[in-house]
Amino acid sequence: MSPRSMPGRVLVVDDDESIRVLIQRLLAKNGYDVDTAADGGMALEKLTGETTYDAVVLDLMMPRVDGFTVLREILDKRPEMVSHTIVATAFPRDVARVRVDEVCRVIIKPFDTHELLDAVRECAGQ
User: Fold this and answer.
1) What angle is formed at CA 108 by the lines to CA 93 and CA 85, rounded to 5 degrees?
2) What is the percent of the chain with per-residue pLDDT over 90, rounded to a whole number?
3) Taking Cα atoms as reference points, which of 75, 92, 76, 93 lies closest to residue 84?
4) Residue 91 pLDDT
5) What's the N-to-C CA distance of the chain in angstroms?
6) What value does the CA radius of gyration of the chain take, rounded to a whole number of Å?
């Protein structure tokens, strides 16, 4: 763990408010500083801002700007973040559209809370 008081900062991107809040609470309970985004457009604003994230939990299927677009933008503008990105999807067939060798982890919804925490710890480099 880093010398900071928090184990890291995580961006949670999901259009489903209940999932977003659940993940935010779980991570906060485990000491993470958590920002959220309800869609890919909001995520891109946060990712191109001044805040640095240790990990990103990214839903793929969202209206307007989907997770695939966010991944492409991360690859183009913040390539160092790809290896800290956790793709979370309820549609396993969509994983075929993701370059899983570039992202840190892929988890299938519904996921176990331990699986999510393990993924965040791994992808945040802890």
Assistant:
1) 100
2) 71
3) 75
4) 85
5) 6
6) 13
Q: Which of 49, 64, 50 is nearest to 15 (CA)?
A: 64
β-sheet bridge partners, residue 86: 57, 105
Q: Contact, 103 vs 85, CB < 8 A?
A: yes
Residue range 6-10: average pLDDT?
85
- pLDDT value at residue 100: 62
- The conformation of residue 97, written as its DSSP 8-state character, comes to G
The answer to whether 117 touches 23, Cβ cutoff 8 Å, is no
Q: What's the topology of domain 9-123?
A: Rossmann fold (3.40.50)
Residue 120 DSSP class: H
DSSP letter, residue 123: H
Residue the block writes with tokens 């457009």: 41
Checking if the pLDDT of 1 tops 70, the result is: no
Amino acid at 26: L
